[in-house]
Amino acid sequence: MTDYQSASSKDERRTAWLFVAPALIGLFMFVGLPFALAVILSLTNLRLGSPLPLEFLGLEQYYRIFKDPAFLRALLNNGIFALVVVPVQTAIALGLAILLNQPLKGMPIFRTFFFMPVVFPMSLVSVVWLLIYAPNPDGMMNSFLEFITFGLWETTDFLRNTWLALPSIMLLSIWQGVGFQMVILLAGLQSIPGNLYEAAAIDGSNKLNQFIYITLPQLRNALIFVMLVTSILAFRLFDQVKIMTQGGPNEATTTVMYEAVKAAFEQQKMAKGSAMTVVFFLVVLGITGLQRILLTQEKAID
User: Fold this and answer.
1) For the purposes of burial, counting CB atoms within 10 Å of the CB of 260, is it exposed (0-12), middle (13-18) or buried (19 or more)?
2) What pLDDT digit, counting tens, does each position of 6-43 carry?
3) Which of 122, 119, 97 has the alpha carbon at shortest distance from 107?
4) pLDDT tier at 238 (50, 70, 90 boundaries)?
5) Out of 32, 60, 122, 290, which could bridge 239 as a Cys pair, Cβ 3.0 to 4.6 Å?
6) CATH code assigned to 59-301
7) Longest dimension (CA), the chain
8) Domain residue ranges in the chain
9) What is the number of helices (H) and of strands (E) in the chain?
């Protein structure tokens, strides 16, 4: 390698670092440093307003939270929520994306209409759905179900019913977030070369086979991305629970983030709340690692 090439390579690396540095600094300030502080706090007995001196407890806080029935129920609720919302929301978003990818008049208006709930703050959406789930015969959901069942439906308090509270929050979350996934998948659909479908049609392939063997493989990266983001948001579930149910009834809707916030700011047990957030971070990190494994396997196959 000549001196000129060596100098050029050094300049390129220096330029690359200049572009990467702000992102690395932001990642350290807003992710790395808070996580490190949470880990440190989780190893102590820190409690706001407590006259007791600060002590190092090691892994005692983690031992306590994994013996806490409320935290275990929160993990279970987050898992159930993710297992239902992620595939259902992705399937609906894919169906809407395919529908809105048709070359028909007025499609931009429909795309805006379906994406609109994503723009609204979750707190506002939760308040609106509180009115929809109103526990009286005039409530929108009760009235709708009574209408479609020809009067057989009995008025129900959705958010105070142990079996219906979490599914009610799932329905709200799917409605609010499906537009985001739809936009990502719609962009993926529009990037698929049209000649693939033309060649398949010439070979006699029907629409179902084209969807299975062309559309889905071409959307693999987009599908993995939206499922990853939705999974992370599923474990970050907090606003709906705080506004609509406060974790009830009987902890049927409590989540990891809700338990962490309650422990840190309501019970003033900062160390306990920090331990919960560390567990949450590791769960999200595991989901991210799984996504990278899937992408690596795809590249190896290609």
Assistant:
1) buried
2) 555 666 667 767 777 787 888 888 888 888 888 898 99
3) 97
4) very high
5) 122
6) 1.10.3720.10
7) 85
8) 1-42, 59-301
9) 15, 0
Q: Which two tokens stand for residue 59?
A: 């892994």
44 three-class SS: strand
Task: Tell me the C-alpha distance between 65 and 274, whole Å.
Answer: 11
Rounded Cα–Cα distance for residues 197 and 211 (Å): 9
With a pLDDT cut of 70, the percent of the chain lying above it is 92
Q: Give whole-number Cα distances, 164 to 82, 124, 291, in Å.
A: 16, 21, 31
* Residue 160 DSSP code: G
Residues in contact with 48: Cβ distance below 8 Å, sequence separation at least 6, in sequence order: 268, 270
Reported as a single tens digit per residue, the pLDDT across 67-95 is: 999 999 999 999 899 999 999 999 999 99
Can you tell me the distance from the alpha carbon of 59 to that of 114, in angstroms, rounded to the nearest whole number? Answer: 46
Using alpha carbons only, how large is the chain's radius of gyration in Å?
Answer: 24
Residue with tokens 């789930």: 133
Q: Which two tokens stand for residue 130?
A: 């509180």
Number of neighbours of residue 142 by Cβ within 10 angstroms: 21
Confidence of residue 56 (pLDDT cuts 50, 70, 90): confident
3-state secondary structure of 56: strand
